[in-house]
Write a structure and sequence with these properties.
200 residues, Nucleoside Triphosphate Pyrophosphohydrolase, 3 helices, 10 strands, 16% helix, disordered N terminus
Length: 200
């Protein structure tokens, strides 16, 4: 429902749906640490401005692919777990919570995930971004592909990152943030700083 004047619908392509996986580890001192990775652009014609910026793990959804599969695929490809093992050393926040719904004589089951949905525009293109918090175990080791789409990987204390995201247009540790990753990172910082217990 709109209050006031309804916004005009823009003509153009349908939104591109993507997932952002914010990796968190809770085994580094008193506060959680959040993962950032350097974006390495292979096709500069497609993305002339993204090279060298901080981002989260992210993937565009493939046709008929579910969100959790895209998250696991993204972590696998960008952190060196390709193919993804049967029991990966990470867990999507809320992944184990299921709810059942009954409608007439039919029973349905839903997998409840903790997410943040953001709609963004980039020129004439809409992006629908779905952010997931993913806790990794102590055994999680990043093994980046030197020929792949990521460069440097760092773990940042959540309080330090939250402060930097107060002005995300400024460089942080020598690099700027990818705009599409900023809402996901802010969501994760807010969730982690609002609780003193583990998310999973």
């Amino acid at each position: 429902m709109f209050y006031g004047k309804e916004p005009k619908k823009k003509k153009g392509r349908l939104p591109i749906v993507c997932v952002h996986a914010v990796l968190v580890r809770c085994d580094r001192g008193d506060e959680p640490h959040i993962h950032l990775q350097e974006r390495r652009v292979i096709d500069h014609e497609y993305d002339p401005l993204g090279d060298g910026k901080w981002e989260t793990v992210g993937e565009t959804l493939n046709p008929l692919e579910d969100f959790t599969h895209a998250v696991n695929r993204g972590i696998g490809e960008e952190c060196g777990y390709d193919p993804v093992p049967d029991n990966p050393p990470w867990l999507i926040s809320g992944q184990g919570e299921r709810q059942q719904y009954h409608q007439r004589d039919r029973k349905e089951e839903a997998l409840v995930l903790n997410t943040r949905v953001t709609m963004m525009t980039e020129g004439s293109q809409f992006w629908l971004s779905i952010a997931f918090i993913v806790e990794v175990s102590a055994g999680f080791k990043i093994r980046p592909d030197k020929e792949g789409e990521t460069g440097e990987h760092v773990w940042v204390p959540v309080s330090e990152l939250a402060k930097a995201l107060g002005d995300p247009d400024q460089p942080f540790r020598g690099r700027y943030f990818m705009p599409l990753s900023v809402p996901a990172l802010k969501y994760a910082c807010g969730q982690l700083m609002d609780t003193t217990t583990r998310l999973i």
